[in-house]
Specification:
This protein is of the alpha+beta class. Helices cover about 20% and strands about 35% of the residues.
């Protein structure tokens, strides 16, 4: 009987020790929780992309890189002014270096996160406060673009205004954020004789209501992952907040000049917050309750 008790006790202790070893063993956070890269901006739409396993993105050197593009598509528009306020990032998780963000010009490579400006002959002078010791922040300055600079590609697609490439420093991190703030992004119709006298779209961080539908701003993260969509996020800023509830109330009240297009099936599906197949005041109530949690 005593031998049996000692044997059971020994087995129990072994099990406890094994559990302890498993608990102490290092576990890859990237494999367990994945990694989410969130991109925000005061003008461009927010984008949130999730990667279930960042190790699958490693290159031949074992490094993981993300490229963020901020794109503009202006229907028959000239780009007049482009003014970056600042680009910031989580510098403990992401690394930004000149060597990751260069363009080739003959035998030389130049630091440039503004490919459109470079293509238009503006060079790389728009960035005025950056070096490799920068603590997660770049500050830009003001530039006027020549009137011949169309705000779209020859094939009608969007052009990249700002491009930033980052190396993932901490592969155990669960998330990081990149933020672009701009002071000015101005357009005018390509038929205007004196384009510098008629700015539209954006000035002083405010989107001109007359320009809605004239231009499209978009954000893209590469490599592509799984886009994380938030139910009820009508303004597409990546979060459910009081602004979304207000937009829905405006729509239900037949308010004019809505900031989003409710004829878009995706917008309507997101507005159906309680999932009953109809968009009505019950969705506003459900949204407001969710915001109180």
């Amino acid at each position: 009987m005593k031998k049996s008790i000692r044997k059971i006790t020994a087995l129990a202790l072994s099990a406890v020790l094994l559990l302890g070893l498993f608990a102490m063993a290092p576990v890859s956070a990237a494999e367990n929780q994945g990694f989410t890269l969130t991109v925000t901006s005061n003008l461009f739409p927010a984008q949130k992309t999730h990667y279930s396993d960042v190790s699958a993105l490693e290159d031949a050197n074992g490094d993981v890189f993300f490229t963020v593009d901020f794109k503009l598509l202006g229907a028959h528009q000239y780009l007049i002014n482009l003014d970056i306020d600042e680009l910031t990032w989580d510098n403990e998780v992401l690394e930004f270096k000149e060597e990751y963000n260069t363009v080739g010009t003959g035998r030389r490579k130049l630091f440039c996160i503004l490919p459109f400006a470079y293509e238009q002959g503006l060079g790389t002078g728009m960035i005025n406060t950056f070096d490799n010791s920068n603590p997660g922040r770049i500050v830009g300055n003001y530039t006027s673009v020549k009137p011949a600079a169309f705000a779209y590609e020859e094939d009608g697609s969007a052009v990249t205004m700002v491009r930033a490439k980052f190396k993932l420093l901490d592969k155990t991190a669960s998330a990081a954020t990149v933020t672009l703030n701009m002071d000015t992004l101005s357009l005018c119709d390509d038929s205007v004789v004196e384009p510098y006298t008629q700015h539209v779209l954006i000035s002083g961080r405010v989107i001109d209501a007359d320009a809605l539908g004239v231009a499209t701003l978009s954000t893209q993260i590469s490599p592509e992952g799984t886009q994380v969509t938030v139910k009820g996020d009508l303004d597409d800023d990546g979060d459910l907040d009081i602004a979304d509830a207000t937009i829905l109330q405006m729509y239900l009240s037949d308010f004019g000049n809505l900031p989003v297009d409710f004829s878009d099936p995706q917008i309507l599906a997101s507005a159906d917050f309680n999932g009953d197949g109809a968009v009505n005041v019950r969705d506003v109530t459900a949204m407001q309750r969710a915001l109180l949690v």
